[in-house]
């Protein structure tokens, strides 16, 4: 049995969707709001020193963090290429490029913007920092949009874990309305994945209407 430390709607949804997809048995442990509850952060630190979710404990007790590492590892152990294109697949190269783009460029904008006081002490500087990180994030999403429109992003051709990332991350700031207006191709993928029959239970848990 896997144990997924998470919080509905947060980054654990990326992994919950994949565990459900592969039908791997797991227990979900809600950690609480890491930004509001000191206790939540302290409890998670015992398993993941960075106190981030997703944090996954494997059936043999090993801990794995970092959603991209988990994504690749789950594909390895299930020996499935349904969510991660196989090493010799023509889509592998673009898959890896954009998976790492999402987690190495876009995901950290949340780390910085969700609580800027961790990085900038002065209150008014925090506001400026937060605004600039938000603008930078918009620029990053527009790069993804361009890649989807020009078919460099592999998701137009076949379903993969990238579709799950787009579906979940477009729920976060600046939110779906912004995507509908500024990144319509990304938005359309997210809407399509919202209705994927294999993922309905996960979306209901994480994003109840
Ligand atoms: N690189 C990590 C990022 C995970 C992450 O930033 N998760 C957020 C929740 S969506 C978090 O735990 N934030 C708490 C914090 O920033 O302290 C991954 O891809 O799993």
UniProtKB/TrEMBL annotation:
CDD domains: GST_N_Beta (cd03057). It holds the Pfam family GST_N_2. Residues 1-82 form the GST N-terminal domain. This is GST N-terminal domain-containing protein. It comes from Lacimicrobium alkaliphilum.
């Amino acid at each position: 049995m896997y144990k997924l430390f998470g919080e509905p709607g947060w980054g654990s949804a990326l992994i919950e969707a994949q565990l459900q997809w592969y039908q791997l048995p797991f227990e979900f442990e809600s950690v609480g709001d890491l930004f509001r509850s000191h206790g939540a952060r302290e409890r998670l630190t015992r398993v993941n020193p960075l106190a981030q979710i997703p944090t996954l404990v494997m059936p043999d007790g090993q801990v794995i963090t970092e959603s991209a590492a988990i994504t690749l590892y789950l594909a390895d152990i299930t020996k499935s290429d349904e969510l991660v294109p196989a090493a010799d697949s023509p889509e592998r190269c673009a898959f890896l490029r954009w998976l790492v783009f999402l987690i190495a460029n876009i995901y950290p904008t949340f780390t910085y913007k969700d609580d800027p006081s961790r990085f900038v002490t002065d209150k008014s500087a925090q506001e400026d920092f937060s605004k600039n990180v938000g603008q930078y994030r918009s620029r990053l999403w527009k790069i993804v949009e361009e890649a989807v429109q020009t078919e460099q992003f592999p998701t137009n051709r076949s379903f993969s874990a990238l579709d799950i990332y787009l579906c979940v991350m477009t729920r976060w700031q600046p939110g779906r309305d912004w995507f509908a207006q500024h990144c319509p191709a990304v938005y359309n993928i997210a809407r399509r994945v919202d209705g994927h029959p294999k993922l309905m239970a996960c979306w209901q848990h994480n994003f109840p209407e």
